[in-house]
Amino acid sequence: MDQIPRDDRCELRRQSRPGNRRKKKRLGADNPLWLDVLEWGPDADHAGWFDIDWDSENRYLKDKLLAPFLGGQYGVELKAGKLQVKFDPDEGSFAVWAYGAHKLPLCPLHYQLVLGRDDAELDRLGDMFGDLRQWRPEIRERTLALKAKLAALARERPEARLILDQTVAALNADWRALDALIQRQFWRIAYFGVAGDDINYRRFFNINDLAGLRIELPVVFRHAHARVLPMIEEGVIDGLRIDHIDGLLDPKAYLDRLRASVERPFYLVVEKILAPYEALRDDWQVDGTTGYDFANLVLGILINPAGEAGFTQTYKSFAGVDAPFSKIAYASKIRIMENEMSSELNTLGQDAARIARQNPETVDFTKPILQRAIKQIVACFPVYRTYVDFNSASDEADRRYLDWAVAQARRLDHALDPSVFNFLGAALSGELTRELNSGFSRAAVARFAMKLQQYSGPVMAKGLEDTAFYRYNRFVALNEVGGDPQRFGVTPAAFHKANAERARKWPRAMLATATHDTKRGEDARARLAALSDAPDEWTRQVQIWSRLLRARRGDVEGDAPPDRNDEYLLYQLLAGSWPTELLEAPNASALESYALRVAAALTKSLREAKTHSSWTAPNADYEQAMQSFASSALDAGNAAFLTSFLPFIRRLARLGVDNSLAQTTLKLTAPGIPDIYQGCETWDLSLVDPDNRRPVNFEAGQQALRAIRPMLAKQPEATMRGLLDQWQDGHIKLAVTAALLDLRKQNQTLFENGSYEALSIHGEKSDFAVGFVRAAGDVAVAVLTARFPGRRAAEPNWDDAAALLPEGEWADIFTACHFTGGGSVALAELFAVLPVAVLVNRSPPLAL
Prior knowledge:
The protein is an alpha+beta fold. The strands form 7 sheets. Strands 15-17-18-23-20-21 form a 6-stranded antiparallel sheet. The chain has a 4-stranded parallel sheet with strand order 1-10-11-12, with no helix packed on it.
């Protein structure tokens, strides 16, 4: 919004995806690099740019590229005429088109089979194309010249073009002849499901039409960054957000090259998903992460850990799920490796077996045994990946993670000889080739280890984020990218430690609470966090809603689909995302619109969970049962459910407002650079993508802000009270956001490099709030936010809870209320107007 000031130096940045998903090329008909590879195979100019295994153990893929883009089996689609040869009169080239969308060029060496013998000139050109191999090394130039001749012939001689069209039509009508032509190509068109077993190029996760580039090659790096680097150098953009950094073969080398390619300093953050016990690597030349770690940290401080036992018991009794999340995550990663990403696992097993055959001591380690062990090790990885690069000593943290994974894998699969795990552990850590005469190829071992590192990240992402997070529904606010569903809340001590560490090491790290990939809107999560204060009430409501909805469908026994786990997800989904405009008597049209969004989110959840349905094998009957169940809840005529649900959601939504304002305040004042995702200036109750990528009405927000600013300037306290009373329109969040961004703009040094100290809060209800002080030069800012709104609603008296405010005179930026420091200030006074307070002191003491 143009009225919200630019925050620090982070207004405009470009998102870049350099690797696996990471720099990816969409394999469409307009991708010249990919078309070149399809046309000429391993001899293509750009064959080395992609991560392709031309020496696959599958003989039918020797020197061929699998093209798994068919919606049905090859033979069925071929006979049905879904594959058609087409002539391009502008290029003078031929290609097989699948569904009119996927272009698969014919190799010019085989044009002779298409041109036929019915025209002398076409026949002569066919012979010339057939003799192309004699033109090395000028085969490409010769090919272009012959294509130009063919195009000219078709253009200048209508009778030749007619014969050509007739020949192509006859070929398309004869599936056996077409099959014979296809078999000669450098590609093998196949049903998309074949990719799981046989794909021989690296993809963005398991998406077949997104191929990974070998960005580690200088020529590929230069090509991929040919546009963005000049934009940075010229000051057109201020920075880069590198998406999915773990998909790179060597992230550190990439970041070093990126920095060295631009003389002008620029902002650089990476989407590195960190485990709670993992730290961003010190040797990466970045400003920090993209903020998923902060998103989970700030959510955690709002969750009441006292509610965990109640939610665990409810989940077990209602949904029947008793397994710990760690087991579900392990099984989910195994599921991914045995299905969607089994071909990559197969390649790793093949590479490990080749290495094993280099030494008599390991020659008996067969591929199936090694592949089985690799699967166990990757499933046990406690982090997304390690970063062993074989150019330096292995990192202590990497060794610790590897040792853990190997030890756990050995324990889980004790039927395998321990020496197999020892061999793989030594290969992955680099120990296998430390000795000069190890007998193993150092290059082969290094490549195997780095490729496995490149594999473990996608397995973790698909297994954890995109499978386990949709299977384990105990408390879905925790099921967020970078989150840990087992970590029910964050202590103030842990919160302050993480912030202080960021202030010391990564003061310019990005702070996010919503992105294009978050599974729930930031305010939906904040609202759900308020549930942690009242697990007993939640349990009662869920039981009531289930009886009402199942009875309406005639399901007396309660065992008809959807299952209880998916039903339990629905109630949390509704509680978190219920629109503010539906809090009162719902409009039938608005309710129907919301129901469509809910149905889409539920379908995605079911398919990601892969329990009753999946993307590769959708279960229409089960999905319909789930949608029908949700629709019955959202039927304007279902008075019973809505009568029960609406009073509850009204209370919860209001409690969620306090959490949302706390979350916003903490994000905009904690060490780091805040990132406000599109539309999050007001309430963000969105569901998983694509729901969170809907168009945003920025003009409405701008108008609201223009109206609010003069009122805040004249009567800040009364205005804030009024906005909070009318919280449903989201303008209270907009006002808080604008005020905090104004504060950041006025105090850039403080927020970029200021100190961080936890604020002492004491009293019987000291856990009801959290606070800290930022200071730089002659300015200090004290930040306090209330916690646990549900408990505060039940126990409205703050009693003796107070914050120990440093000496000086302090003014709240939201209300202009003044407070005197040097002693305790009651939380009841600090939060008299809002559940947040940001106090400014222009003359702080030297020591806080």
